[in-house]
Design goal:
By secondary structure, the protein is α+β, with helices and mostly antiparallel strands. It has two helices and five strands, in the order βββββαα.
Length: 122
Amino acid sequence: MFSSIEDPSFGNFSLDFLCYDRARFTLNIVMTISLLPKLRSFPQSLPLEGAVRIELVEGVPIFRASGIVQSRIEALLAKQQDDTLTPDEEEELDCYEDIDDYLSFVNCTVRNMSISQTEPVI
């Protein structure tokens, strides 16, 4: 079985996979990335240091928003549910969403690269 997944939100990005093997399930991933997603801007409240933390998950680095950034996003989301955000707060939340999408893209790329490696973990 041969399938292809394309995601236009990341430019020209496709993920092709071939799944079959007689004795076990095998996944071969071929990625074509022509454009790295671009960020419009950073929110004014984004700290220049400590905005992102790195965790190791099964030996793979995963980039996540820091506790400070996560708290700010949660505050904006809570205010959005209870009240109306100002235009500046809407823009700030949109920027955080873009950063989250970017980090997800980076994490996905790093995970896919680690899957294709056959070297032992150091």
